[in-house]
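Posting here for the record, re: 1-deoxynojirimycin.
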Amino acid sequence: MPEPWWKSAVVYQIYPRSFCDTSGNGVGDLEGIRRHLDHLAWLGVDAIWISPFFRSPMKDYGYDVSDYCDVDPLFGTLSDFDRLLEEAHRRGLRVLIDWVPNHTSDQHPWFVEARASRESPRRDWYVWRDGSPERPPNNWRAAFSESPAWTYDEKTGQWYLHLFLSEQPDLNWANPDVVAAMRDTLRFWLDRGVDGFRMDVIHCIGKDPALADVAADVAAIPYCALNDDPRTHEHLRGLRALLDEYPGDRVMVGEVFLLTTEQVASYYGNRDELHLSFNFVPLYLPWEADRWRGCIDEIESVLGRRDAWPTWVLSNHDQPRHRTRYGGDEGRARAAALLLLTLRGTPFVYAGEELGLEDAVVSEASRVDPGGRDGCRAPLPWDAQEGHGWAGESPWLPWPPEPATRNVAAQRRDPSSILHLYRCLLAARRGSPALRSGTIETIDAGAAVFAFRRRCGDDERLVLVNFSEEAARVEFEGQWRIEVASAGVGTDEVFGGLLPPGQALLLVSGKAD
Ligand code: NOJ
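Prediction output follows.
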């Protein structure tokens, strides 16, 4: 059996609002993605994941869906999507879409009907509980606020559950009709030809029917970061079987927002639940060699026990960009890119990190997100002109820093740019079985340097990341050439044993030609 495509793929995340606006409404759209497919093919990614573009009142910018089977007019139409999918496939790019199964919008017809009366046939599609208007049914907390995960519905005199905003009521996955309806939404997109799904907070769909209080010491943590119920695994096995009915290795990548690798690993099941699961443990690590070494060893051993394939994420639309988190230095962002793209597993690149973007500085007046995540969602600058390649006058959020120079066109012209570094790393990965699918073994190279070896048959690579601000001397047996240096891009020099401050190197065995 050949390995499924998603094991050796690099996935590029597009937050559609922020990618490129062609209609002039200040919000990116599907056509904006289509027009830049050639750029993504040039960059060398294998797949794109598009964050939600479905009909939505946009209280959580698309993660509050009011129709799972249509495109919000802000982003275009279903035919725009079909065209985008077809043109992406023509270029060899797979397309993943975002599926939001834990909750709908409160404007979804299902919830409108459920809310209308206690006798509504769809009442039980959501989670309702009795209780006095003063006291929510339990102590679960919603995300984005310090409020309870419950809203009291005056008209019908019951509380409904929402792990996120009150405009995002939780679906009741204990009801088989909900399961069937949600499976239909998957089929809708699978039949159109999508290659898979990123599944939003998938670990939350199964819930303890007793809705028991959480312990007081964790009661301040949003419940979406705590829910870890066995029922979810049953649902996942059903969803996996559904995807597996389709040809072409359709993939489900789950967002499991639980912050231990052990918990994340359990959502792979026995190769019968998620194909891939996000693991955000590394995303929260400081930029320190020993922390990364320990974390990678742990991931290898914990996921290895289940034969589960790791994923790597440094940035996404919910967190400050990693360049910003690591202190703003581009050199460090370059070293992080080399690390991300040489680890064993499937890396996810968040649009804009290949430009070395920092978070935008968003004034109080311009903030729009209830979760305070505006900075990492700033629009992508395509060129140096006013408007930076966006059709409208002003996009929905301010530009990230330095758009006149830090934009796609300028960086494509500059072979030493971070954009070219990403391209070079992606090409190196594609060309090396060791990097795509080989084993990984961490090596002792002193306290400041994190080093590991990747191997597949005769193909071998060494990766060295100097986390310190001082040069480090490292010695290995054999001859090694520098294939990619984070500070430059591709080189072909023999490695002399000196690793400059803050830099990372990808080494290939053998003498220079
Ligand atoms: C996780 C998504 O990544 C985030 O953007 C969203 O707000 C929540 N899930 C709720 O859907």
